[in-house]
Design brief:
By secondary structure, this protein is α/β, with parallel strands linked by helices. The protein is built from 7 helices and 5 strands.
């Protein structure tokens, strides 16, 4: 299975905002599971850096952004992804980049806090909580067979 994790899931964890423990569970499972190939956009790294840089020093911001992405694959920004994002009917350009990146890797699921900006997605869009429930069900089914 291939999952794509939106930047806001990482921000949940960095800021410990509502739902952060479920987002952390997603990231930990994504890093440890042999059956899950976990991706995010290369755009996520600078976004997290700039987000952290507002509240911590340069060195810490770089280290934090790098650490939270450890173990995940980065889908490079390309002209194709940017063109698809610009042409998208989605209301938010950054989300359009995330979606085009997820489509580029043929992700099975896009995990985000902001489902409404991904309504045009052909990929299943799930919150961290919804994705964790799916994983629990799959685990139970595997044990029963």
């Amino acid at each position: 299975m291939k999952i794509f994790i939106d930047v806001n899931v990482f921000i949940d964890v960095m800021t410990k905002r509502s739902g952060w423990t479920e987002s952390l569970r997603v990231l930990n499972l994504a890093r440890r599971s042999q059956e899950i190939e976990s991706w995010t956009s290369a755009l996520t790294l600078p976004l997290l850096y700039f987000f952290r840089r507002r509240v911590v020093d340069e060195t810490t911001a770089r280290a934090d952004a790098q650490a939270i992405l450890k173990g995940l694959h980065l889908e490079p920004l390309s002209q194709t992804i940017l063109d698809r994002a610009l042409a998208s009917a989605g209301p938010d350009f950054e989300d359009n980049i995330q979606l085009a990146s997820a489509e580029s890797i043929s992700a099975n699921h896009l995990i985000t806090r902001n489902k409404r900006d991904f309504e045009t997605s052909q990929i299943a869009v799930l919150t961290p909580e919804e994705w964790l429930v799916l994983q629990e069900v799959a685990t139970l089914e595997a044990k029963l067979t």
